[in-house]
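User:
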Amino acid sequence: MDQQTNLGRIQIVLVDTQDGANIGSTCRAMKTMGITRLVLVGDREYDENRVRTLALHASDVWDNAKRFSSLKEALSESVLTVAATRRRGKFRKSSALHPTQLSEVVQKTGEGLVSIVFGRESDGLTDEEVAMCAQVVTIPTSEQFPSLNLSQAVQIITFTLFDTIKTYPVQANPVTQARCEEAALKASEALDGIGYFKLAQEKLWTFRFLRDVYERAALTESEIQKMEKVFVKMSRVKAHKEIEDDV
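Assistant: Predicted structure:
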């Protein structure tokens, strides 16, 4: 896959952005790095003049932006989903990528949409929104003042992608996030059927863990079908054994 094709399948997803000026600045930051897919999540309306003034000659990125009412919809067709956040916590991912590491992951990921998600200017992404993504990317900043403006964060990550991604041969094409969710749900149901879960939220945590692992592994359709069979067969073997024990 050549550099521009790789950059061209990356979409910047903005969740509930509060100020249209930040959207305009983001459009400019994206286009200077060869990335033009913009996705807006939420129902806010923005002042056209405010957006276009800051976008300058990148207004076409705004004109072609896609809108979704939910983040789940926006990510469903992606083969790789990454939340941009500096916050850590109990209900967030246990590890985060450096922007350079993210670029390396994107370069080696087969064909399909790559979504990088940015949150609100005031408080970023919620725990639930981060949980919808398979990975996290964090920009290193000073502990004395770690907060970055939205468009600055987009600029740093898109520059790193542009600077790092080169032409690279990719053979296998991974499945989408929606397909990963389907397989993870099937696995979770199979585990539930054999009484694996003991804690109240354990099924949800396992579902999210498996979905993220499947997505990060960039599994092909053939590979993910094999993973599904492992769990389905396991549940059937246990059911068969229980019937034998009852006889």
